[in-house]
Structure formats: structure tokens, C-alpha cells
Design brief:
The complex is a heterodimer of chains A (about 100) and B (about 575). Chain A is of the alpha+beta class and about 100 residues long. The radius of gyration of chain A is 14 Å and the shape is globular. In chain B, the strands form four sheets. In chain B, strands 16, 17, 18, 19, 20 and 21 form a six-stranded mixed beta sheet that branches. In chain B, helix 1 packs antiparallel against helix 2, helix 6 crosses helix 7 and helix 13 runs parallel beside helix 14. The radius of gyration of chain B is 23 Å and the shape is globular. The N and C termini of chain B lie far apart (about 70 Å). The chains are: A alpha+beta (about 100), B alpha+beta (about 575). At the A-B interface, helix 2 and helix 3 of A face helix 13 of B. The structure holds iron/sulfur cluster (SF4). Iron/sulfur cluster binds next to loops of chain B.
Chain lengths: ~100, ~575
Amino acid sequence: MSAKARSATMPVVITANRLRDGRVVWLGAGTAWVEALAQARAVTGDDAAAALVLGQQAEKAMQVVGVYAAEVTLSAAGPQPVSQKERIRAAGPSTEAAAQLAA
Amino acid sequence: MPEAPYIPQPEHARTYRYDAVDREFLAQRIAEFRDQVARRLAGELTEDEFKPLRLMNGLYLQLHAYMLRVAVPYGVLNSAQLRQLGMIARRWDRGWGHFTTRQNIQFNWTQLTDVPAMLDALAAVDMHAIQTSGNCIRNTTTDEFAGAAADEIADPRVYAEILRQWSTLHPEFTWLPRKFKIAIRGAEADRIASRTHDVAVQVKRDAAGAVGFTIQVGGGMGRTPILAVPLFEFVPEAEFLRTMEAILRVYNALGQRENIYRARIKILVRDLGRDGFLDLVQQELARMPLAPYRLAPEVVQAIRAHFAPPPFAPAGDAAAALARATLAEPEFAAWVALNTRPHRQAGYASAVISLKPVGGIPGDATAAQMEAVADLAERFAFGELRVSHTQNLVLPHVRQDELYALWQGLLAAGLATANFGQGSDIIACPGLDYCALANARSIPISQQISRVVDALDRTHVLGELQIKISGCINACGHHHVAHIGILGVDKHGAEAYQITLGGAPGNDAAIGELIGPSFSYEAVAGAVEKILLTHIGLRAPGERFVDTYRRVGQAPFKEALYARA
Ligand code: SF4
């Protein structure tokens, strides 16, 4: 529900679950919510605080649930999650059969 | 939106049938939730306001989506219900469902907007998702061989249904200090992990054949695992509900609501002591006249009628035909040896359908598999099914001379794994792949371990072995009462796994002991292999792992796991 404690310099993405279907989304460009972490906007410092406020507004506007900031590192392919939980949220379940069934 | 049309239940399937009042209540409840969903989407309800309402209807928000947990009352299903669950999985989920240790089913990819229609589809087969969450009395669990087992003294389904009716929407027990789990069995053999429950009931008969109940209280897992202790040796049938009511009242009044980790009845019973708790229950009973709570024989009889035995055929030479088939086909013989259990009716057996293919996801079944099993239940088992707390399915009544045809049907559906009660029949919770509370993944660990165990089993025949995995200390995967228990923890932000040895869930119930420091995600399957190789080196002929461990203690296993090379 709230921003996690994080270092001031570590980039973060703003993430939540979409209200209608519960799917994992990230705050992308402007006020758009995107389904791929690669399109998420990574922010730091004051920009992170402002992005979190945007997220909380989207929560009030019934777009998303449970907004928080998740730490990422930056790579050529886009933001990369730091925690295992965020990696799984971004990539989906790591179980083999689930991947086969969903394909 | 129209309600889903009522689907007739198979003629002989012994499930409790709703009456017009039950159906009307469910229809009203779904209409209420449909309105609540609409108000949430329209912004008239905040998430804080909506969350308790959705949880009352079994709807969680997990990692990737909403999750709908559907109650399978005491694990008893009929073929029409299972087919409908398959339809729900296909239409509103991603084509599969997950059977849990609470004998329920979960749909992991639910969309909020679909939930009212899913609840309509459940109501069409007398099912719902009420009381699968929250601090109330949850689904009572029972023996997966109930109504069939050769060693059964009384049918626990009758009393599980009485408990269901008593506990559903019970006005006094809707806001308990914490959730409350009851298990009930009708045989001496404990196949339901009795002592891990808040209350464990065993249906018995006295010398005159009258039914009564042994009641144990104060068990639970989570961060403080405790085994239930005896409270009453023989409560007469008429006093059953009064006694349950008194136990719940004492807990409701004195359970510690202010601390979630001390709120379960196990802490209250531990703190008061068994005698102190019993004293309070007896004081409460003294204030309760029997008449309003009396369980009348005609009520029991009316419920028993729902579970009347199916029209069994005479045994004939069914046993001899089975013996011939097992001689002809070793693979079938192996399945019969491991996945069937003795039936009280001559010529019949109960058949376990393992949902634990080696390398697969414990408890998962695809929509096609659910439909195939529903068809097989109709062909071979009077349309009856059970869900076990070990996350498998059971066809309770199969003629012995039809087991071969059943097995062929299971082979075709990819469901003929012969491993019930063996090392690859692993209980695993959803863990970090799905669960918002998890520290670490459970399912991929179970997939790795099932391959390791299966390979060892082929050469060394490990026999009965219970491996259970939880992704956090909530212990949904029952790791505390596993022969080899695995608990996912967070170690400086990385997944790590603690291993406990020597636990057991049944008549020899015990809490497993931590063997030492935790293992990384990459190392845990190898650690289990070392434990089993140590057992193989030390075991007496035919000795189970847990018996070797109890005989020799921790030292050789510690040595194998932690000694420097
Ligand atoms: S044990 Fe923990 S991780 Fe596993 S299902 Fe329960 S709450 Fe989730």
C-alpha cells in the first residue's frame, strides 16, 4: 500500500495491480499504466516521490490497487527488478508446467 | 445478469444437496456481491472498504491476479461439480485449478469483473466460496476415504455436514480472534493430520454401538507449531454441537485479538494448560441447557440420507480378476499397490488419482483433466469424488475388476502416476510464484525434489516418505509435520530454505526438528538427496526414512549435510 523504505539514489518503478483484473502493472510514460516492466518509467529522488503521488491518484481513480515503489537497476533492456518477488511479478510464475500451460 | 441454470447432480453421487432455502440464500448473496463489485469499480467503495467484503466471498488479491478460493465441503465432490470446476477454469481462468491442503480449489488468474459470473456457475452445482477466508470457521476437512474405508467406524461426512450447517454464517463466530479449522475422521487411522487443527474430532462408537466423539483441541502450525491435546474422550452424539459451541465461546471470549501471532486457540490452550481450558469449557457448558443445542437423532438421520451407500454390485470374482490383471501388467500392479486402498464393501477399492506427476506442480489439474476425471467418476465410481489434504483426488468406490479400465483412462489423461504416499507425492503450497505473503518459491523446489526422489526410488525403493514445502512460516504446505519439511525463508533478500526432519502428521504425529543452517535455492534439492542417501546407508530392511531418523537421531544427517569435504 505504501512506499517501501529505499535508498535515495536507487532507481525505482511505481507498480500496482490493476483493479479490474488484478494484473501487474507499472507506471509508464505520463500517467499510463503498462503491462511490461521494460516500458516502465524508472525514477529517483524527487521524481520518485512525484511518480508515487501519481500512482496514488490512480488508486483513487479506481485504476489500480496497492501502489508502491519497487527498486530496480537499469540496463539496456530497461529496468531490472532487484527482489525475487518483483522478478516473479514481472516475468510471471517461474514454474515449468505453468509456463507450458499458459503458452 | 441471469443466474446460471441449475445443473442436475448425478443420480447416485453422495453429496449434500441444497434445498430451496439454501439456493435462495446463495442467489441473494451473489447478487449482493455483484453489487459490491459494481460499486467498487464505480468508485463508491475504497479498497479498504471492499477488501473485507471480497475476502468474505473467498476473493484474494495475489501476486499476479485475484485468486478465488472455492470451498469443497469436507473434500467431497460429485462429477457434475468437478466438470463445472473444469468449465470455470477454462472460461474464466487460464485452463487449470489448484487443489489445496484444505481440500479446496483455487483459481489463480481470476479477474474481478468475472467473479459474480463465476459464483453463479458455482451456485449452479451447489458450491460457493463463502468462509474460505477471514476469522471464521473454515471448511471442515475429513478423510479422503470417508464413506468407503475398510477401517471406518462411522461415516465422518455426516458430522462434517452437520458442522458445516452449524458453522456457516454462525452469528456468534463470524468474527473470531483468528481463523478456525476443524478436522473430523471416522477411523482409528489418522489420515487427516488431526492434531494440526484447532479442533480435531474422531467419531467413535461405544460398546452399545452409540456414536460419540473424541475431541482434541489447540493444534496449529504457523510460526508456533503445536499438536492438539485431548479434551474429551467421548462426547455423546446429542451433545456434540453444544460442546463445540462451548469450546468456540471460550476461545471467542479469551483469544488474544490484539496480536495476530498469539490469536489462535493453540496459544490460549497452551497458556491456560489443557486442564485450565477444560475447566472454562465445562463452566460454559454448565450455563448452556442441552435442549436448544441438542443434536436430535432425526436430524442426523436426515443428513445421513444424503450419504447413503451407492448401489454396490455383488463382489463376484472381482478380486480374482484384479489379481489376473496385475500379474499381466507390472506397471498397473505398481499403481494398484500404491494408489488403491481397501474398501469396506467386498469387491471394491478406493483409487487415488495422484496430482503429483514427477516434475509437475503439486495439486494442479487442467480443465481437460478435471473433465476426464469427472467422466471416469461417472463410469467407475457412481459419480463420487474426494479431494485429499495431500492435494490428490480420490474415486472412493471402484469395483476391483474395473480398476484396470480406470487405470487406462487415467493413463490417457496423464493422471496415472503411481506415487501416493511416496517421496514424490510432495505437498507444496503456491509459494512465491503466486502468493503475496511468500518469502520463497515452493513449487519449483518440489519439482526439483520430486525428480531427485523419483530417481532414488527407482534404485533404492524408499517406501512411505512425506516431503512437504511451505513458502513462508504460515505453513500452508504442512512442513512442520513432514518427514522432511522444507520452509522458505528470506535471507538477506535471497530465497533460502530451512530443513526439518522427523515430523509426522498422523497417529505418530510429531513436529519436525530443524537440522541446521538453511540452504540456497540451488542447493536444497541436493541437500534432500544427501539426507536420503544417508538414510539408505543406515536403514534396516524395509525401514522408512522417518523411522531411521527417530532411531539414529540427527547426527549422521547433520554430518552428511554440513561436514566439510
Ligand atoms: S505458506 Fe506462506 S507462501 Fe505458502 S501459501 Fe501459505 S502464506 Fe503463501
